[in-house]
Amino acid sequence: MGRNPVTWLGSPTFPRAARTALGDTQLRTNLRKATTTIRAKRARAVAELADWERLRRAGEAIKNDVLANLDTYLVRLEEAVTARGGVVHWARDAEEANRIVFDLARAKGADEVVKVKSMATAEIGLNEYLRARGVRPVETDLAELIVQLGNDRPSHILVPAIHRNRSEIKEIFSRAMAEPPDSDDPRVLAEAARRHLRRRFLSAKVAVSGANFAVADTGSVVVVESEGNGRMCLTLPETLITVMGIEKLVPTWRDLEVFLQLLPRSSTAERMNPYTSVWTGVTPGDGPGEFHLVLLDNGRTATLADEVGRQALRCIRCSACLNVCPVYERTGGQAYGSVYPGPIGAILAPQLAGDMTDKQAASLPYASSLCGACYEVCPVRINIPEALTHLRARAVEARPKHTAEALAMSSAGWVFRDPRRYEAAQRAGSLSRFLAGSDGTIKRLPWPGSKWTSTRDVPAVPKESFRMWWRRNRG
Amino acid sequence: MTAARKPRVALFATCLADTLYPETAKAVLRLLERLGCEVDFPLGQTCCGQMHYNTGYRDEALPLARRYAEVFDGYDYVVAPSGSCAGMVREIHPGLCGPSSAVERTYELSEFLVDVLGVTDVGAYFPHKVTYHPTCHSLRMLGVGDRPLRLLREVRGLELVELPQAEQCCGFGGTFALKNAETSTAMLADKMRCVQHTGAQVLTAGDNSCLMHIGGGLSRLRTGVRAVHLAEILASTEEHPWVATP
Ligand code: SF4
Q1: A282 φ/ψ angles, rounded to the nearest 5 degrees
Q2: Nearest residue on chain A to B168, judged by CA atoms?
Q3: Cysteine-rich domain: from which residue to which, for each copy (chain B) (predicted)?
Q4: Please, are residues A242 and A221 in contact by the beta-carbon 8 Å criterion?
Q5: CB pair distance less than 8 Å for B169 and A371
Q6: B43 and A331 in contact by Cβ < 8 A?
Q7: Which residues line ligand 1 (CB under 6 A)?
């Protein structure tokens, strides 16, 4: 399962990948159930806070400040981490980051690493990289474990196995575990996973984690989770390696306060998440004796250069936008072909991939009806519809100028620029009445209109447009 | 609004209503005149450029935004029977070609009726069972809120039934309906199921585009449910009741 950074190598364009998902009844049922439940819960959790809008604006402002002064804050973070006994590594791209982690693991003689909460490592394909070199990565987050044991790909930011139901999970566990679960009761499944992981935690010398936030002032790294497995990863092994996107910084602990309110309510609809772990460098005799922080660029500084597109870097990966997205609800996350699915994936993945001539990446900004539900819920007010149309414009620029679509668009533009041409087109269009049945609707149009009429009737263009009527009666 | 002078309103029919749904534009005209406005239809108007803009063809959208500012300059108000086009004008045009008085005075129909004219009872009569779909751009881009519902509640003879999952997108999305036709259709199917669940005879909304999509699906399935623009319901009276156009 090779893949390039950010988007999975060989993924079909969104419309083609969506086709498979749309035909999968079980998938559609699983997704609808999961997203409808979490949507309602999120709305309730958010409604509890009278100052939610102000919190969102605060979150937006802090992140904008971080992005505007990223260089300063990163240096401050590096100094603080180093002063507390940690080591900071800078990785320009996936290859560099993977190599840093692998070299560290090898230096410790580890043939297995335990992992927790890391989208960044999924983004760079660390698991594949390590496995190819004889180091076994073990995911410890329950949902990620399900994906890993099922030889599957993630389909959600927070719940990577959202597309699986209980009986499918039992199946996967039964095939992969020494002590398989004997029912599909969630508690039994969780217990089976716990037993499966416990041995790993106790024997692992090296852990790899992600980070939700890092506080520049003190060099503290923060992981927010629900299961507590992160805590095991962060404390038991001798060496801890954290891989983090460079945009995950916040300047101070006061800023962190804002996000610790925004994140849990937006993601799991909880007032507070069950486990919040914070670690700062190393403490002799307590926890890992070595701490490495890998700061990952991988397309982020290039994204930062795009004035409209850069707002995607404010994302705190809460997944609220996925849960409200009507497109995501129908297609699931894998159709987006990257570790970042849904609305945020549609604007982040193509930017990180940095290549709009790539057909798959360029199809992502079109994977939206621009309904705006994502913008409405985003805790850091990322104007996703704005970014989508902006990236569509970039995709159009990158495409050859003589596609059927470009020609249709420019001739429509030519018609709309002049009212006389426009009226002539209306008259010509009313010829479509010949295509219409006795009920005045058209059942079948030639391509590309056939994409419409395969499931929808279309009214025939009336004999008289409004402007003709106006001229006749009022002109 | 002063009693002395009738407000001069320019009707921005939108290219879709002008060309495909002239009855909607006629309804807006009748309605606004009935409420005491002086209505003009500047013939220089064409399209707000939304299709081009949203598909990524900004160079094509720009001259259309400029044309809009020119053509609608000098009126007290510009009124459009579309949350989507009014949203395009108010939210996007300024970024494309700068602010203009035309843009600042552009209103979606229900906003204009409730906020500017200050009416919710427009004297309409429509004896049918109706359900209302709040189209995404009306709802989220413009924030028309419950204005359409307040208008509908005052219509005599009309039985208003609530649409389940009303705020879910119908799957139209402009060129999305062609580029991602299958996903669009899946969203449409769910929307139609909700519409049929209400038992309404008529589905209404403030946007012909979404109505064309949902109505096209309802027609294909021969559900008998008709898609009717809000303007046509509000224009309908006992003397001049709404009649279904073929
Ligand atoms: S874009 Fe906003 S809503 Fe979506 S995951 Fe990121 S922070 Fe959450």
Answers
A1: -125, 150
A2: A326
A3: 9-89, 130-214
A4: yes
A5: yes
A6: no
A7: A 157, 266, 315-321, 344, 377-380, 382
Contact A456 B188 (CB under 8 A): yes
Cα(A344) to centroid of ligand 1, in Å? Answer: 6
Distance from CA of B196 to the nearest CA of A (A): 16
Q: Whose CA is nearest to atom 3 of ligand 1?
A: A378
Could you give the domains of chain A?
Answer: 14-301 (3.40.50.10420), 420-474 (no CATH)
Q: What is the pLDDT of residues A288-345, one digit of tens each?
A: 999 999 999 999 999 999 999 999 999 999 999 999 999 999 999 999 999 999 999 9
CA distance B184 to chain A (A): 8
Q: Using a CB-CB distance cutoff of 8 angstroms, which residues of chain B are in contact with residue A456?
A: 185, 188, 213, 216-217, 219-220
ipTM: 0.96
A116-120, A217-221, A383-387, B65-69: range with lowest mean pLDDT: A116-120
pLDDT tens-place string over residues B200-235: 999 999 999 999 999 999 999 999 999 999 999 999
Separation of alpha carbons A288 and A239, rounded Å: 5
| B215 contacts on A by Cβ (under 8 Å) | 457
> What distance in Å separates the CA atoms of residue A22 and residue A19, rounded to the nearest whole number?
5
Q: Do A326 and B169 touch (CB under 8 A)?
A: yes
Query: Residue B116: which of B25, B7, B31, B40 has the closest Cα?
Result: B7
How confident is the model over A231-244, as a mean pLDDT? 92
Mutation target among B16, B26, B48, B57 for the A interface, most CBs of A within 10 A: B57
Sorted by where each begins, the domain ranges of chain B are: 8-116, 129-235
**Per-residue model confidence as pLDDT tens digits over A422-442:** 999 998 888 777 778 878 888
Q: Which residue does chain B place closest to A424, by CA atoms?
A: B19
Cβ atoms A473, A445 nearer than 8 A = no
Which tops the pLDDT comparison, B78 or A404? Answer: B78
Q: Which of A20, A375, A416, A471 to mutate to test the interface with B (most CBs of B within 10 A)?
A: A416
For A461, the closest of B20, B43, B168 (CB atoms) is B20
Determine which helix (DSSP H) or strand (DSSP E) holds B161, and give its type and residue range: strand B159-161
Contacts of B168 in chain A (CB under 8 A): 326
Q: Which CATH class is domain B8-116?
A: alpha beta
For B129-235, the fitting CATH number among 2.60.40, 3.40.50, 2.60.120, 3.40.1350 is 3.40.50
Burial of A297 (0-12, 13-18, 19+ CB in 10 A): buried
Residue A181, amino acid: P
**DSSP one-letter string for A408-466:** HHHHHHHHHT-HHHHHHHHHHHGGGGGG--TTSEE----TTTHHHHTT--EEPPPSS-H
Question: Is-contact A333 A163, C-beta < 8 A?
Answer: yes
- Judge: B53–A389 Cβ closer than 8 Å, yes or no: yes
- The predicted-structure confidence for A52-88, as pLDDT tens digits, reads as follows 999 999 999 999 999 999 999 999 999 999 999 999 9
What's phi and psi for A74, nearest 5 deg?
Answer: -65, -40
**Mean pLDDT value across residues A255-268:** 96
- Whether the per-residue pLDDT at B246 is higher than 70: the answer is no
Element (H, E) at A94: helix A94-107
